[in-house]
Amino acid sequence: MDQLRITGGNRLDGAVPIAGAKNAALPQIAASLLSPEPLELTNLPKVSDVENMLNIIGLYGAEVSRDMRGTRIDAADIVARTVDYDTVRKMRASILVLAPLLARFGAARVSLPGGCAIGARPVDMHLKVLAALGAEVAIEGGYIVADAKAGLSGARIVLSGPSVGATETALMAATAARGETEILNAAREPEVVDLVACLTAMGAQIEGAGTHRLLVQGATTWRAASHHGIPDRVEAGTYAVAAAITGGRIELVNARMEHLASVFQALEAMGVTVWPGDRGVVVNGTERLRPVDITTEPYPGFPTDLQAQFMAMASRAEGASLFRETIFENRFMHVPELIRLGADIALNGPVAVVRGGKPLKGAPVMATDLRASVSLVLAALVAEGETVINRVYHLDRGYEQLDRKLAQCGAQIERISQ
Ligand code: EPZ
Question: Closest by alpha carbon to 272, among 254, 245, 300, 308?
């Protein structure tokens, strides 16, 4: 298993190209199964979760080809199959193939994803959505068995919470249902808006993207399409923290200001300056970071996917910062590892108090989940001495060439293949 060796102390200065959004790419790859016409996706990030999802649709017989422009998916001749537990266990987002398969074949069998490091992450809302559209859904031996031989019928769906995945499942199923579907309490994340843009390019008729109310006309006539996905706001936010925590300056090339309003607001509260550059967004760190209070919320609130990164930065601020995690029940896996680096963090249920100001010291640490891992990298950039991070494969799930991009900004970082 690869390791990262980082020696802290360098102020970062440079430009980082922000890749396509992983969490936009995954539902769009799944959505390609809805249509017998080819879908070209440009701007897919080169990360293992995207490779994994492309492999999954390949299991169904979708043809995937790549060239300089992007990735072309042809799902004209797919066959119904079962996605087994081992495949789904590795990546929860595999659940997103359930709705397209059900829409296409009138039946689908997909393993339950099981939990993951950040929480139980049930899929009950996805199943309720499919049942509301007329499917028979059962759990048999750890598998979701969905049946809609008579096809799906449009309905009024009220989600119990603005779940990103459940909204995406509802959107994909509704495009193939008879009649109109209304989705209330829909998620407003940019990745959901981007899925609507992709489905629309493919021929779907959807109103209300970016609001809590989506209106989908069913029985779509699919057409060949090409879609350029949005840049990854979580990758951009991560490099913004890299600039802030080292007192450096990084231009986030292609980043979209409007996708990161709550994040930049938190950065400015900490004394970091952010402004639109000619190629994206420029983030200027400061030697003296102020503490911050952060509560994670659904978009446009502060994103849970940047909570761990900001906690690493708060360990450098002068004073006590407070973090309240409201989206996942166990998203503090980075805390024990940050404490190993010398951070002063106290946990009380969904709340963490970070007392900053003491220098961090390098040590061997363990990556646990994607965003927790990158918070350790950020802390290592300012820790005295060397930090060795194990199980780096977690990072490769969502960050394209992280070590190279940081090294190009002056970080002392080396990837050791073992
Ligand atoms: C998406 O996960 C993202 N993943 C996550 O990013 C992100 O943290 C999350 O949205 C919140 O923004 C992808 O898009 C592939 P949810 P998702 O459904 O769709 C509960 C990363 O690091 N819930 O909005 O799974 C759930 O347990 C990943 O890139 C149910 O209870 O998130 C959670 O507590 C991590 N039942 C809350 O809702 C359900 O059926 C929000 O989950 C579905 C969700």
Answer: 245
List the chain domain ranges.
3-16+232-416, 24-228
What's this model's pTM, rounded to 2 decimal places?
0.97
Strand ranges inside 91-161, DSSP E:
107-111, 136-140, 143-147, 156-158
Higher per-residue pLDDT: 381 or 219: 381
Ligand 1 center to residue 147 CA distance, Å? Answer: 25
Calculate the CA 399 to chain-centre distance. 10
What's the one-letter identity of residue 155? Answer: A
CATH fold of 3-16+232-416 reads: UDP-n-acetylglucosamine1-carboxyvinyl-transferase; Chain (3.65.10)
Mutate to test the pocket of ligand 1, among 26, 121, 234 (most ligand atoms within 8 A of CB): 121
260-289: pLDDT as tens digits: 999 999 999 999 999 999 999 999 999 899
Residues 6+ apart with CB under 8 A from 405: 16, 17, 239
| Structure-token pair, residue 269 | 């509260």
Q: Which string of DSSP letters, residue by residue, matches 276-342?
A: E-SSEEEEE--SSPPP-EEEB-STTSB-GGGHHHHHHHHTTSSSEEEEE--S-TT--THHHHHHHTT
Q: Which two tokens stand for residue 41?
A: 């996706």
Residue 83's pLDDT is 77
